[in-house]
Amino acid sequence: MNDSGYDYSIVRGFAYSALFWLIVGLIIGLWIAFEMFDPSLNLTPWLSFGRLRVVHTNGLGVGFGLSGIFATAYYMLQRLTRTPLPFPRLAKAQMYFFNLIIAAAAVTLMAGMNTTKEYAELEWPLDIAVVVMWVMFAINVFAILIKRREEQMYISLWYLIAMTVTIAVLYIVNNLEIPVTLFKSYSIYAGNNDANVQWWYGHNIVGFIFTVPILAMFYYFLPKATGLPIYSHRLSIVSFWSLIFAYLWTGAHHLMLTPLPEWIQTVAIAFSIFLIAPSWGSVVNGYYTLQGNWEQMRTNYLTKFFILGITFYGLQTLQGPLQGLRTLNAFFHYTDWVIGHVHMGTMGWVTMIISASFYYMIPRISGRELYSIKLANIHFWLILVGQLAWTITMWIGGIQQGAMWKATNPDGSLMYSFLDGLTSLYPYYRMRFAAGLVYFAGILIFAWNIFQTVRQAPQTTETAEA
């Protein structure tokens, strides 16, 4: 607790949790990347690709992603409302409960306890725990907003509200299930309805974890880091409401050319294309914030993270809608192109923005200077090069994969077997693993830099914001 009454212990706790799950999740990711070209690493069922893959996605998407979101959210909420956290003990209990859930999720998924629903793999006891944990978070969010001393609600607060409400609805609706044993349940939906609800959830849970709260960080920390006001508050508000309105209608673009009614597919395509506008509204807002001050890309180490991060967000929001078009979807769906698409967002947009937010936030709540700006710059270049090499490799491999799947002989028979396509990708899988090592080295430097920053003796003068 600092002199202003703000509680930063919970911010530190979630930040450390994020770093821990980031490293663990990436180690698992490297392991399964190696398994793709050396199946002998499938040593036991617990370490098989099918089980570790979901541990990787949950460990990074939820373990790292949500930890980073909770850390920055508790920081931003207090600063933007000028109000201390109403229930700090509840927040601390939420932190311990959250980490317990992630650990239990890793163990149960490695043991094969899996609902088989993407991003909703946890069985019903853990689903209930997740809902309880989210309610604990929501209580603090809305309590601090009710008690706020600052009447004006900055755009970041709107994004945090949208995340808090929407994730609750998405998670509960999609995870309605009938328990049959302590470790097994079945969805209450079936057939097309199950697929439609699942991808309404699957696409939007990603959006409201990897887009909405990350934009909250971007809008808060970019002006703070650069000392420049956001270019247009009006544009940020218009982009917010347009994004929230359109996002929830796009999930069926994951189900193109399936038995799902064609009109539902078409609605998803239309709203997916519409999403380009509000997404690029935030990209343009970021770029124009720097107008006349682009030298900060060279002189301010944080600016590089934010601007490259929002650039990858912009590229994601072009790729995603275009992949929803039926013709392109017929070629790219189920190929490694999609894997590259997803990881440009997570390794580029999400991780860069969270990294920069931590670099800004941790020294200020600790009363210390950042241990090494040089290391932060090395971190930036390693994750930039690693991410680009990783994603471009998968894009090229995905194009080759799609072309081989569709190639036919003059008599109409398939030119290549599935195994032909798989073995042709081995060089790309090796390159992906190498790129992952480069990226992982950058993350280790990031964690070391934060760790060393906190270990330093506190400064004699107050470095926290007034």
CATH superfamily descriptor: Cytochrome c oxidase-like, subunit I domain
Largest sheet geometry? 2 strands, antiparallel
Can you count the beta strands? Answer: 2
The CATH topology label is Cytochrome C Oxidase, Chain A
Assign an overall shape.
globular
Second CATH tier, the architecture = Up-down Bundle
Mean pLDDT: 95
How far apart the termini lie comes to 14 Å
- The CATH class is identified as Mainly Alpha
Gyration radius over CA? 22 Å
Poorly predicted spans: 461-466
Summed up, the domain count is 1
> Into which percent range does the helicity of residues fall?
over 70%
Label the structural class. mainly alpha
Transmembrane segments: 14-34, 54-75, 96-116, 128-146, 153-173, 199-222, 234-257, 263-289, 301-318, 338-362, 374-396, 433-451
Domain Cytochrome oxidase subunit I profile: 8-466
Family: Belongs to the heme-copper respiratory oxidase family.
Organism: Chlorobaculum parvum (strain DSM 263 / NCIMB 8327) (Chlorobium vibrioforme subsp. thiosulfatophilum)
